[in-house]
Design brief:
three-stranded antiparallel β-sheet, 112 residues, 4% helix, mainly beta
């Protein structure tokens, strides 16, 4: 087969529902070089601080709905619906939803 399909909820979320949800879809889509995840954050929720220096993976965050703040080493970016950012592997980052509504993002990373 030359394609694979998946739904967001095929895998279990790796974060508790009360904070939103995060679904890694790489395995469901059987990708070799590309990571694809859906992240939903309730108001007041935050992601994990991390970088990808060990993996060499650059990441793109696309905001589907809501507003998030992405804390970097030396600045904080505010991203609203339909905005995105590409991050170098060495850039330490953490996502926050400091707004009043649930935020939904698509996270893409490569190479794996």
């Amino acid at each position: 087969m030359s394609y694979d399909t998946a739904t967001k909820t095929d895998p279990e979320s790796i974060i508790p529902e009360e904070y939103g949800g995060m679904w890694f879809l790489k395995d469901e889509l059987e990708t070799d070089h590309l990571g694809f995840s859906v992240l939903e954050l309730e108001p007041g929720a935050e992601g994990k601080a991390h970088d990808e220096s060990e993996t060499g993976q650059e990441e793109i965050y696309y905001v589907v709905s809501g507003t998030v703040e992405v804390e970097l080493d030396d600045e904080t970016l505010t991203l609203e619906t339909d905005e995105l950012v590409r991050l170098d592997p060495d850039e330490r980052r953490k996502i926050f939803n400091r707004g009043d509504e649930r935020a939904k993002l698509i996270l893409v990373g490569a190479p794996l």
